[in-house]
Amino acid sequence: MKMTDRLWAIIPAAGQGIRAKTAVPKQFMRFGGRSVLERTLFKVVSLPDVEGVIVALPPAYLKDPALGQGAIDRDALPFNKPVLTVMGGATRQDSVYNALRAVPAEAGWIMVHDASRPFFSQELFYRVFDAAKVFSAAICGFEAVETVKTLVRPLEFGYTTGFTGFVGTTLNRKELLLVQTPQIFRKDILVSAYEAAIECGYHGTDDSQLVERLGYRVAVVEGERTNIKITFPEDFMIAETFLRRTGTSEFTPSTSRDTGLGFLEDFRQPRKSRSLRLAGFLPVTGFGFDIHPLVPGRKCILGGVEIPFERGLLGHSDGDVLCHATMDAILGALGLGDIGKWFPPDDPRYEGACSLMLMAELWQSLKVRAEITHVDCTLIAEVPRIAPYVEAMKNNFSRALHIDVSKVSIKATTPERLGALGREEGIAGFCAVSLLKKGRFSHGAQSL
């Protein structure tokens, strides 16, 4: 991993949580056997791309050993990643800044996530991180669905119970965004934004607001309505409901892109009365194959991973046979031709292109038509050795295709010295993709 690719996460957890009306700050309230903070921290630590986490705690929790030991159960955390604690400040902004100063120098990216949002999914994280890599700063959120008005508060209240003020004006909700976390930024940009805000005494309500002040564009990706921020007493009841629907109240470590929304799987399981997994979906399968020669002077790219080797695959793009076979399999399943029609080999725009990015672009345009249920790939190569890089390839496919890594299978085998591949002249890739094709069906027959 390059130094600039290293990602550290910050969790501001020093607030008092007054609106939750709890005996202790809401982030330390327990439900289902764990505190809100522990659940959020576990989710963040479980993200494969996160190298370490810094948690800003209330001063009392750092000064009092009894409180501090109960704040985070380190034995329950997976993967033995570093989890540092710093003293929080009077505001969220102060807490994040204190944590920023503790981030290792080699980190290139910073993720900030609210302690009281334990139900975000890994898929959401990757949407934000992928956008941040392109635009340097990214957040998630969704459009307002309710009418939003400004409120004019009178100086004195002497009217009726529940009266809070008068309507100022009605805002155009199509132009409004309800912002969530995680938010991810290039480290140097976020540090500069915080230093500029502190220098002039400016206080924002989220991290992106400080970055915006410096003139940077902040990208927005679609958030999740289930990514609730536990703020009020009734939010704990919602959280308990989530856990009951998942059928578990404890943590289950996982290296895959677990969505954290297992309760939704109730609506995705097969029903005995249906021949299809879901009404309106037709199971289809596609098969893809690609082969390229190995030549000197080229990088060896497979599954988006650069493998150290003295030769690479010859091609108009980077020659990634694994991505090419997968794209052909997807297109074949949907009856949309082959990658040559989508990315012509004589088009100068694709000369030296990253095939993983092309695959992500392809699926972005096709995902409205289908849902991927499984990807099964096989590489045939005498050299180089593939096994050490398989997990990285699977993670790349998971991101590019927006699917859980558990739905990706990548294997490698040798041709036992037979033929051109056995003579180390090239590498071939095969892929079978299973999809649920969207459409309208009747009695098991397709009617698009």
TrEMBL record:
Q: Report residue spans for region: 2-C-methyl-D-erythritol 4-phosphate cytidylyltransferase.
A: 1-283
The segment annotated 2-C-methyl-D-erythritol 2,4-cyclodiphosphate synthase runs over: 284-448
> Mind telling me which residues the site (Positions MEP for the nucleophilic attack) is annotated on?
173, 229
As cofactor, the record names: a divalent metal cation
Which positions does UniProt annotate for 4-CDP-2-C-methyl-D-erythritol 2-phosphate binding? 290-292, 316-317, 338-340, 413-416, 423
GO MF annotation terms = 2-C-methyl-D-erythritol 2,4-cyclodiphosphate synthase activity; 2-C-methyl-D-erythritol 4-phosphate cytidylyltransferase activity; metal ion binding
- Residues binding a divalent metal cation, per UniProt: 290, 292, 324
GO BP annotations, alphabetical order: isopentenyl diphosphate biosynthetic process, methylerythritol 4-phosphate pathway; terpenoid biosynthetic process
**To which pathway does this protein belong?**
Isoprenoid biosynthesis; isopentenyl diphosphate biosynthesis via DXP pathway; isopentenyl diphosphate from 1-deoxy-D-xylulose 5-phosphate: step 4/6; Isoprenoid biosynthesis; isopentenyl diphosphate biosynthesis via DXP pathway; isopentenyl diphosphate from 1-deoxy-D-xylulose 5-phosphate: step 2/6
- Domain 2-C-methyl-D-erythritol 2,4-cyclodiphosphate synthase, by residue range, is 285-435
Q: Spell out the reaction equation it catalyses.
A: 2-C-methyl-D-erythritol 4-phosphate + CTP + H(+) = 4-CDP-2-C-methyl-D-erythritol + diphosphate; 4-CDP-2-C-methyl-D-erythritol 2-phosphate = 2-C-methyl-D-erythritol 2,4-cyclic diphosphate + CMP
- Note whether 4Fe-4S occurs among the keywords: no
What's its EC? 2.7.7.60, 4.6.1.12
Q: Give site residues, Transition state stabilizer.
A: 19, 26, 316, 414
Q: Does the keyword Metal-binding apply?
A: yes
Record keywords, A-Z: Isoprene biosynthesis, Lyase, Metal-binding, Multifunctional enzyme, Nucleotidyltransferase, Transferase
**Mind telling me which CDD domains this protein's record contains?**
CDP-ME_synthetase, MECDP_synthase
Q: Which family does it belong to?
A: In the N-terminal section; belongs to the IspD/TarI cytidylyltransferase family. IspD subfamily.
Q: What does this protein do?
A: Bifunctional enzyme that catalyzes the formation of 4-diphosphocytidyl-2-C-methyl-D-erythritol from CTP and 2-C-methyl-D-erythritol 4-phosphate (MEP) (IspD), and catalyzes the conversion of 4-diphosphocytidyl-2-C-methyl-D-erythritol 2-phosphate (CDP-ME2P) to 2-C-methyl-D-erythritol 2,4-cyclodiphosphate (ME-CPP) with a corresponding release of cytidine 5-monophosphate (CMP) (IspF).
Which HAMAP family is this protein grouped with? IspD, IspDF, IspF
Q: What is this protein called?
A: Bifunctional enzyme IspD/IspF
**Species lineage:** Bacteria, Bacillati, Bacillota, Candidatus Fermentithermobacillia, Candidatus Fermentithermobacillales
Gene (name only): ispD
